Amino acid sequence: VIITALSDLTVSVLVGFIIALIIFVYKYGKKSAIKAIFTGAEYQSCVVRNHRDQLRLQHLGKLSIIVQLHRYLFFGSVVGVKDLVDSILRAREEKHALDGKIKYLIIDFEHTDGIDPTCSEVLVEIVKACHHENIVAVFTHLGEKCHRKLQHVDPKLFNEYGMHFSTQDEGVEYVEEAILLWAAQVRKRWLIFDSLKRLH
Predict the structure, then answer these.
(1) What pLDDT digit, counting tens, does each position of 147-172 carry?
(2) The dihedral of CA 158, 178, 57, 104: what is its sign?
(3) Between helices 51-60 and 168-190, what is the axis angle to 10°?
(4) Best CA proximity match to 36, nearest among 86, 107, 85, 91
(5) Which residues are bridge partners to 163 per DSSP?
(6) In this structure, how many other beta carbons lie within 10 angstroms of the beta carbon of residue 142?
């Protein structure tokens, strides 16, 4: 009102728009984009498995982590996700293979309202960092618009660095199958020796 009285209406509208934008960024920047975090032991797919495989997945579920995002994602809010992934990568060096040394990262977008271009660049950086550390990054519930924005940043994203599934359950199922296959291969190598065969 003061700016309108002292200057032109266009200037006051422009100033009001800038103030509203600053308030929006401040409010969303304070709140985390992460809704929930689960390990593979805490969240399993709907696939019916035998009792032995269920026990294996409960034991080996520490090898995967699920990060659920929410709200509208932009650079300010998604930086927290990047910090989380960086902390996982740092902690990974200190852990043993079955003590939470992450091999799979699932990022779920079911509860998000959309992403902006700057956020897309941060997400692509996260996937590339995971790929460099031999961690498989999986996106789930990624809408067509978000999918196009990510591919626009890097067309090779889903072919070389990361993966995408329609639902979180499909992504978790893929990870579970990969973990069970890895466990079977490890078990075969262990059972080369007669003493370990008897113990098994």
Answers:
(1) 888 988 998 888 888 899 999 999 99
(2) negative
(3) 100
(4) 107
(5) 138
(6) 22
pTM, two decimal places = 0.78
Report the run of H or E that residue 53 belongs to, with start and end: helix 51-60
- Say if residues 106 and 175 touch (Cβ distance below 8 Å): yes
Sign of CA dihedral 60, 61, 62, 63: positive
Three-state SS at 103 = coil
Q: Comparing C-alpha atoms, which of 102, 114, 104 is closest to residue 77?
A: 114
Residue recorded with tokens 């009792």 = 51
Q: Tell me the Ramachandran region of residue 71: left when phi exceeds 0, alpha when psi lies from -120 to 50, beta otherwise.
A: left
**CA angle, 152 then 154 then 160, to 5°:** 135
- Phi and psi for 100 in degrees, rounded to 5? 85, 20
